[in-house]
């Protein structure tokens, strides 16, 4: 088969979480051209890194613009049935997806694995690809991204998230930024264009000398954000897309989880680099798309986050050899860690 169409029409973090499975697609169909149906921003970034060959712009589960070439379709989007039907409409020679009895595409998904709701997102899609002869695992998440040299060693804070339930209160983000600035750290706030106001309010509430905190929200495309994360000493954020970028490029992070258990969406590699804060119960998940700050997320205190940042900044600095595999060198944190 010369063409493989993969559906993953989700956000930046979802794209990063699918990289290992995308490499499994390469191994299952060596030599085939890999077309990713997904948002243009993350898709173009992955194309530039050689993870995929082509990007078909797709947002959500709208019909796909496929030219009718004979192909294999791979569903890395969801459990079905709607995502299965979107791919089945392209008339693939084969549809690789989790078994879904609600989809009437006889023969396409027969005999494939069952969906496991409690499985880690990375492990889930790797299991699907291994079932069709595409070996892959969490180690395949790594991305080789050149770091931005403009402000090496800065600390990035990403206060936003797509849903309110995953947004920690603004005033607490300001306390974290203030603690870092007070101890000589270069701090920058990242986010999408719609989060610029949020980042500016956090910066204003931080205090300190003018220019102590740089607001980058809305000023970086996906490759630019990835380079900035790759060059950072530390990332502090919630359960959102940029956290997965840090995992992929090997940048240490402090991650604040609320409605979703980190066992399902937390870092799948390099646990020594990432401190995950969560005070929830995996048996009672919240709503990751809710309209109010999740009570589990609200239980995380500012002092706890500062302590986690202090711990990671006090460790040997991370350098990144070829293929993005992290290693450590002598301590070289810029400035004194917060206390």
Automatic annotation (TrEMBL):
<dbReference type="InterPro" id="IPR051199">
    <property type="entry name" value="LPS_LOS_Heptosyltrfase"/>
</dbReference>
<keyword id="KW-0808">Transferase</keyword>
<dbReference type="GO" id="GO:0005829">
    <property type="term" value="C:cytosol"/>
</dbReference>
<keyword id="KW-0328">Glycosyltransferase</keyword>
<feature type="region of interest" description="Disordered">
    <location>
        <begin position="315"/>
        <end position="339"/>
    </location>
</feature>
<dbReference type="Pfam" id="PF01075">
    <property type="entry name" value="Glyco_transf_9"/>
</dbReference>
<dbReference type="GO" id="GO:0009244">
    <property type="term" value="P:lipopolysaccharide core region biosynthetic process"/>
</dbReference>
<protein>
    <submittedName>
        <fullName>Glycosyltransferase family 9 protein</fullName>
    </submittedName>
</protein>
<dbReference type="InterPro" id="IPR002201">
    <property type="entry name" value="Glyco_trans_9"/>
</dbReference>
<dbReference type="GO" id="GO:0008713">
    <property type="term" value="F:ADP-heptose-lipopolysaccharide heptosyltransferase activity"/>
</dbReference>
């Amino acid at each position: 088969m010369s063409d493989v169409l993969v559906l993953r029409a989700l956000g930046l973090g979802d794209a990063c979480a699918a990289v290992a499975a995308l490499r499994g697609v390469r191994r299952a169909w060596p030599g085939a051209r890999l077309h990713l149906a997904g948002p243009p921003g993350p898709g173009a970034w992955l194309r530039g890194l050689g993870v995929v060959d082509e990007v078909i712009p797709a947002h959500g589960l709208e019909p796909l613009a496929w030219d009718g070439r004979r192909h294999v379709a791979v569903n890395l989007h969801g459990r079905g049935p709607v995502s299965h039907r979107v791919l089945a409409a392209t008339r693939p020679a084969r549809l690789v997806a989790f078994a879904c009895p609600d989809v009437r595409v006889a023969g396409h998904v027969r005999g494939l694995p069952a969906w496991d709701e409690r499985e880690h997102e990375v492990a889930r899609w790797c299991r699907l690809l291994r079932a069709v002869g595409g070996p892959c695992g969490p180690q395949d998440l790594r991305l080789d991204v050149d770091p931005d040299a403009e402000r090496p060693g800065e600390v990035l804070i990403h206060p936003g998230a797509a849903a309110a339930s995953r947004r920690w209160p603004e005033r607490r983000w300001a306390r974290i930024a203030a603690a870092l600035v007070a101890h000589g750290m270069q701090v920058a706030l990242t986010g999408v264009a719609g989060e610029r106001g949020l980042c500016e309010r956090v910066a204003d509430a931080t205090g300190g000398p003018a220019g102590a905190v740089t607001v980058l929200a809305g000023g970086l495309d996906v490759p630019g954000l990835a380079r900035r994360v790759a060059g950072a000493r530390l990332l502090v954020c919630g359960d959102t897309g940029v956290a997965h970028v840090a995992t992929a490029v090997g940048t240490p992070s402090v991650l604040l989880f609320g409605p979703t258990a980190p066992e399902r969406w937390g870092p799948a590699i390099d646990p020594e680099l990432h401190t995950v804060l969560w005070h929830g119960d995996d048996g009672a998940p919240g709503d990751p798309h809710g309209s109010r700050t999740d009570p589990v997320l609200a239980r995380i205190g500012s002092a706890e986050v500062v302590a986690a940042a202090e711990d990671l900044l006090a460790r040997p600095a991370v350098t990144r050899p070829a293929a993005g595999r992290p290693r450590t060198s002598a301590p070289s944190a810029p400035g004194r860690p917060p206390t």
